[in-house]
Design brief:
The complex is a heterodimer. Chain A is of the alpha/beta class. Chain A contains eleven helices and 21 strands. In chain A, strands 11, 12, 13, 14, 15, 16, 17, 18, 19, 20 and 21 form an eleven-stranded mixed beta sheet that branches. In chain A, strand 20 (352-357) and strand 21 form a beta hairpin. The radius of gyration of chain A is 22 Å and the shape is globular. Chain B is of the alpha/beta class. Chain B has one domain (30-173): Rossmann fold (3-Layer(aba) Sandwich). Helices cover 26% and strands 24% of the residues of chain B. Chain B has four helices and eight strands, in the order βαβαββαβββαβ. Chain B has helices at 29-47, 62-77, 129-141, 184-187, and strands at 24-27, 53-57, 83-85, 117-125, 146-154, 166-170, 177-182, 191-196. In chain B, the strands form two sheets. A five-stranded parallel beta sheet of chain B has the order 3-2-4-5-6, with helices on both faces. In chain B, strands 1-8-7 form a three-stranded antiparallel beta sheet. Classes of the chains: A alpha/beta, B alpha/beta. At the A-B interface, helix 3 of A face helix 1 of B.
Chain lengths: 419, 200
């Protein structure tokens, strides 16, 4: 980039107080982009990833799965709907840095309570704007997600070699165990809306607010547990143990989550209905004996086509994952927990987007049916969880005995045959 | 981020007439610069990088536009793309009907066009006859791997089966209207205007 940005440029809306300082974005492979400061001024490092969503930036920013990642927005104009008090998916902004082409001059939306940039500034999120995000995205697409640093204000004046060293010495995303950094410290419960029908233990690996909300709407009382929960903590939920167990989305490398995988195996052993989203899908894959791997540049955005292979229906879905499960797409696989089928697949690149156990009441998806932000095509997956728990309850009453491994064949028959 | 201005030698301009008073602006200087930058990105994405690209401007205003596209691509990719100009005068199908025009010299970059991806650059795509002439001119010079077309304005009314791969602005027009493209290097003015048609 040859363009030189002046040290201080007044913002284009002429409002006093907001000035932009010079800023530079430095990629691990040495490529740099110059722009202007956005949000907080300072420096930050993380993994550079791009998101293709044109809307829903507030949900994206507050999604814990983006912990330690620097988000490049492919949509050029960001911030025009400000921020509001309703759309947060967690209590804070998690992204490590924010890259936008052209920040909105002022926000205009009936729900907006303040400007996005003020919020970023207040939460100390360092960003950069007025750079060519299309060229940057193409670079990441060709060369894969990589570490990146944003340096603005005084930091932007340091020699580029020094900045590059700072980026190259920062931690890698592969091998990072991050769930413990984003999880709730104390368990909490979200009450069912209307009549309470089921109790679910939800393990928070970076859960988004919309997930318990959607379960609550279906008459589920959700007990959100920290990522450090043991099988005893999970079984202590509800009067007679939980009706179902849920593993949330979350950041980091699933290969590091051995403890969580062990917990999931305990759940599968007991035949408790299981539903997992995103990180939860990767953990189910690992619990079943599949591997996981890092995608070249991941799937992020709210416009990704996925086929439900059971019905052949294509959904437009919200994604946010840099890792994926390595399972064979053709036919059923035999695992320690019986037959497993890849239930959903991404039509862009044939990546596994969902797993379904045929002999256990367990399934998971890699994408985000809670759709915050995103389309609501996949909300039926929560209904499927309710069906699994209903089936198990009926079986329970009929056999009037505690469900032990091997007593769930009827549940899986229903699951396999009902669609 | 604007493309860097290249001060090119002034072409022998074919200002057929000055722009009428009633002309309306359809693209400003900023619009033109943004459109060219986008086309630059599109060319790179279509070609998966700048490997094997050759940009050829069609005189007169296609030439500075091609130079600017090359500058945009260099700005993004970090290395230069060969750029030249392709004279089509002797291949025009209206040669016999119109007053005598002087033939210019085509300037083809070193390395030629054989097995390259040639992107033809022109200001306005209208009947498609200019592009047909350009394709004829190209076939005398070599055998490109592919030929693509980038235009600043596509105003419709094609008379031949030709379409553009990259368009700055699709401008629906009537045949009675005229589209005037002015670029700084040739005209000292940077604007696209439209005139004529039914008065309202």
């Amino acid at each position: 980039m040859t363009t030189q940005t002046p040290l201080t440029v007044p913002s284009r809306d002429g409002r006093p107080g907001r000035t932009r300082e010079g800023a530079i974005l430095v990629l691990e492979d040495g490529r740099t982009f110059r722009g202007a400061s956005y949000g907080a001024v300072g420096e930050t490092v993380g993994e550079a990833v791009f998101s293709t969503g044109m809307t829903g930036y507030q949900e994206t920013l507050t999604d814990p799965s983006y912990h330690r990642q620097v988000i490049v927005m492919t949509a050029p104009h960001v911030g025009n709907t400000g921020v509001n008090t309703e759309d947060d998916e967690s209590t804070r902004i998690w992204v490590a840095g924010y890259v936008v082409r052209d920040p909105a001059i002022r926000s205009s939306n009936w729900r907006a309570t303040r400007d996005l940039e003020d919020e970023l500034d207040e939460q100390g999120v360092v960003g950069i704007c007025e750079l060519d995000t299309r060229a940057l995205t193409r670079h990441l697409r060709e060369r894969g997600a990589m570490r990146v640093g944003i340096f603005s204000g005084q930091a932007a004046h340091r020699p580029e070699g020094e900045l590059l060293d700072a980026v190259r010495t920062s931690p890698q995303m592969a091998g990072a165990a991050l769930a413990a950094e984003v999880t709730t410290t104390e368990p909490y419960a979200v009450g069912a809306v209307g009549e309470k029908r089921f109790t679910v233990a939800a393990v928070d690996l970076g859960i988004k607010a919309m997930t318990p909300h959607l379960m609550a709407q279906r008459g589920i009382e959700v007990h959100v547990l920290p990522a450090t929960a043991t099988i005893d903590d999970v079984l202590a939920v509800g009067e007679d143990g939980p009706d179902g167990v849920f593993f949330s989305n979350g950041p980091g490398d699933p290969a590091t989550a051995e403890r969580e995988v062990e917990l999931l195996r305990e759940v599968l052993d007991r035949g408790v209905p299981f539903f997992g989203i995103c990180f939860g899908n990767q953990l189910l894959g690992r619990a079943l004996g599949f591997g996981t791997y890092k995608l070249k540049y991941g799937h992020r955005g709210i416009n990704q086509p996925v086929m439900d292979r059971t019905t052949g229906k294509v959904e437009v879905t919200a994604h946010n994952h840099g890792f994926a499960v390595d399972a064979p797409l053709d036919g059923d696989s035999d695992t320690a927990y019986g037959r497993v089928r890849v239930s959903h697949v991404c039509l862009n690149d044939d990546v596994v987007e969902g797993l379904e156990c045929l002999d256990r009441p367990a399934y998971s998806v890699q994408y985000h049916p809670e759709a915050a932000a995103g389309p609501h095509d996949a909300a039926y997956l929560f209904d499927r969880f309710v069906e699994l728990m209903e089936t198990r309850q009926t079986t329970h009453q009929r056999s009037s005995a505690r469900v032990a491994p091997g007593l769930t064949s009827e549940a899986s028959d229903k699951q396999g045959g009902s669609r | 981020m604007a493309c860097p201005d290249l001060s090119a030698p002034t072409q022998s301009s074919d200002d057929r007439s000055s722009i009428p008073e009633d002309a309306r602006d359809v693209m400003s200087e900023g619009d033109i610069s943004r459109a060219l930058r986008r086309i630059g990105h599109e060319i790179l994405e279509r070609n998966k990088g700048s490997e094997g690209l050759v940009l050829l401007g069609i005189p007169s205003r296609g030439v500075p536009l091609a130079r600017r596209l090359a500058a945009c691509i260099e700005d993004v990719e970090g290395h230069a793309v060969p750029v030249g100009e392709l004279d089509i005068t002797l291949h025009r199908d209206d040669l016999r009907r119109n007053p005598v025009r002087a033939a210019h010299r085509s300037r083809i970059p070193d390395g030629g066009i054989d097995d390259r991806v040639v992107v033809l650059v022109d200001d306005v795509l209208y009947s498609g006859r200019t592009i047909r002439a350009a394709l004829d001119a190209l076939s005398e010079l070599g055998r490109p791997r592919a030929v693509r077309l980038a235009v600043l304005v596509d105003r419709g009314h094609r008379e031949l089966p030709i379409r553009a791969d990259h368009v700055g602005k699709n401008l629906p027009t009537s045949r009675d209207e005229r589209v005037h493209v002015r670029v700084a290097e040739v005209d000292g003015l940077e604007v696209v205007r439209i005139s004529g048609g039914e008065s309202r």
